Every structure is written in structure tokens, then in C-alpha cells.
Known about the structure:
Elements: E1 6-11, H1 17-26, E2 31-34, H2 41-46, H3 48-65, H4 81-105, E3 109-111, E4 115-119, E5 122-125, E6 128-137, E7 141-143, E8 155-156, H5 158-161, E9 170-174, H6 178-189, E10 193-197, H7 209-221, E11 225-227, E12 231-237, E13 243-248, E14 254-259, E15 261-264, E16 268-270, E17 302-304, H8 315-329, E18 343-345, E19 350-355, H9 358-363, E20 368-374, H10 379-383, E21 390-396, E22 402-409, H11 412-424, H12 429-433, H13 444-453
Parallel strand pairs: 1-2, 1-6, 2-3, 6-17, 8-15, 9-10, 9-15, 10-11
Antiparallel strand pairs: 4-5, 5-6, 7-16, 12-13, 13-14, 18-19, 19-22, 20-21, 21-22
Helix pairs in contact: 1-8, 3-4, 3-6
Amino acid sequence: MTQYDYDVAVIGGGPGGYVAAIRGAQLGAKVALIEKEALGGCCLNRGCVPTKSLIESAQRAASVRDGARFGFITQGLTVDWPRVMKRKDEIVSRMRNGVAFLMKKNGVDVFAEEAAFTDAHTLTLGSRALTAQKFIVATGSMLRKLPFSGDSSAVVGSDEMLCPEKIPEALAIVGSGVIAVEFAGIYNDLGAKVTMIARGPRILSGMDREMTARLAQLLKRQGISCFFSASVADMQKNAAGKTLLTVNLAEGKQKAVEADLILLASGRVPYTQGLCLEAAGVAYSEKGIPVDKNFLTNQPHIAAIGDVLGGMQLAHLASAQGMAAMEHLLGGESGINLSIVPTCIYSSPELASVGLSEEEAINAGLDFQKAVFPLSASAKAHAMAQTEGMVKIVFARESGKILGVHILAPHATDIIGEAALAISRGLGVQELAQVIHPHPTIVEALMEAAHMALGTPINI
């Protein structure tokens, strides 16, 4: 019988990889985790965590500017940018050290090396070799690059936007997805003039159209400009040293946009560079690594999870997939419902969704209804001076079963977990309406929407 160094080797230490490693150790396996950069991956070091730190700083700045509404007057506001950066970096460092502690606590061996397959059971890590009976590939994704005409010296990616030397006076963002919307909010709140250049006809194209249309209106009201069905034709430096973008609009029109920085937020693509997957016999393409329902590749001892699959790029989904894949590789089966995946946008207000959008229900030919509860009827929303959002429930007409929930509201990303639980357990609007929710809160708007679905609205 062949002796291997490890039962399972996990390649990639992001939210999918490190969670999978912990789960494997919990199940008694000898596990190696290989991460060539920093533990926590893109999410912890260059994505989810640092952006949320910046969002908190930016939104607090915006709240101070709006202080008169709450009964206090401020005489100007100065952003201490180095301190904002230091706070962000301290949070990232603390969380990264926490992941390292978890590896040590669970007995996972960590290798800070770049991994490449040499055969189906062997990796090279620098000058050494490592063998394992089974593998999980969790290498994530990288920024999609687009060709630009003209002077592209001011073009940056999301990594650079986490640590610019100063807040730009004017920021142009090419893209209209999650990264674009979140950075637009951050730098708008920090005082920059922000312009979004969207290739398609709307922002956040994968989410419920009614909700994203409302969010787009609110972003415009906050001062963020957005050009739809647009593309960058040319970029040139002007006499003032700023970049002048020529933007192609619909019907042959053009618009000139001046910016200090141009953020390329056109999405991410699977990262498989340097892995030498072909040496292990693993099938893959530029679109990602194909897997079965248990996340196994065409090589049954090698699984793949997270962004490298080329599907939804969400940290919490990668973590769930990591646990499920590890449990299957070690002979068990996961009880995680991988079909119910919340999506969260940390805009202002936040937008969160789970289940079917209205358009998806229509395309599926379902007999459904929707119920919308506006935050203008919420006491807590009035107290917070954030009454522009809403809660929308998509539900089956006959049974009342909840098909989808969409929340545009403060703390929507926290509240959506309750909706995910309801959908994953097959609950209907009747059951949701019968749950006592605390008052006054934003979450009770979910209950109110359920009452509206039943035709028995209480507070509207």
C-alpha cells in the first residue's frame, strides 16, 4: 500500500481552502495547507475584509457630514487617510493571525510555497516534494484584464484601490458589479467625484431588477454618476496631469470624463496559473475547473472549490463548498444546502438577496406573486434616516412557499440569513408572518412583507 505524506493536501489558503483544511483535521485526517501568499486569501487580505473596513470609515464620514439631520452641527471634516489605512491593515493582520492560530490549533501543516503538480499524487513546493492521497484545489481567481487604448498609466485594480496614497479627487470605475458598486460608495462617501462606466444597461446584472434599479437611483442621488451601455474608447493625459477618458455611449454619442484614477472592476477569472493541472490529469479551461455535485474533478481523488470553478464568486459559498468537498473525500456526506446561497452588496443602503429573483421566477414559468414592504413604513428606518429601501418576497401563489427574498435596507446583509434559513427549510409566508420579531427593528420589515403577502398588512 502506497504511503503518502498527507491524507489531503489543500492548495490555496482562502476562505474555501482554510475552512476545508480545518474540517479535514476535525474529521481526523492529516492535512497540509499550501498558500504561496498570505493566509486568508484574496477575501481576507485584498477583498471582503479590507473593503468592509473602508466602508465603515467612509460611511461614518458621510454620517458626520449629515449630522445636522440628527441634531448636531460639525464645522468641517478632515479624513486622516493614513489612520484609515492603518485601521484597515490592523484588522486584516488580526484576522490573518487568527487563521494561522486556527491552523495550529487544528494540527494543519501550513506551507508558504507555490504548488505545482508533477503527477496525480505529488506536488512540488519550491525545492521539496509533497505527496497526498487526495487534494482540494482552492486557488481562487484573479482580476480580469481589459485592453485600453491610449495612456493607461492611471488604471488600477481593486488591490490598488485598497491603499492609494491619497483619496482621489475624481475616480472613474469601469464596471457595474459588486466591486464597482462598493468602491463607488466608499470613495463617494470620502469626498471623491465618482463616475461608473457600465458595459450593460444596469448595475448588478445578476440580481433582482427592481431592487437594483432602486439602488441605482439612490446612488445617483448620493452623487455617483453612471453611464450605462457604455465603454471606454480612449484615455489621454491632459495638461493638468489628469486622465481624460472618452466614453462611448448608446446611439453613437460620446462623453468626456476626467479622473485621477481609473478602477478596472470588470470581474475576476479562475486562477490556475502554475498549478500544472495537466500533470495530474485534471481537466480545466480558462472558464475554470469542471466538477461534479461533490466537487470532484475528472480525477476522483482531486476536488476543486470556490472561484476556481468559474461560478459564483462568494467567500461564504467557497467555505461551504470546502466543507462539503472535504467531507465527501473522507467518506462522509455534507448536510449543507448548497442550493441556497445569499448574495450581499455592501452599498448604502445594503442590498442582499437569496433564492429566486422576480425575473428568474418568470423565466422558470412559475406561478408566483410578490410582496413589497417599503422602509418608509418602518419606525426604525425613520430613526436611522434611511427610509428609501424595501423588502421584497417572491412566493408561490398556491402554497405561499417562499421562493426568494430581496432586501434593500440598512443591515440587509445581516438580515438575509433569516430569509436563507426560511427558504432552505421550505417555509411559507404564513410561517414567517407568525414569528414575533423585535420592534423597532429593520428585520421586522421581513415579517411585515410576509403579512403583505398574506393580504393582511399591519403597518401599511
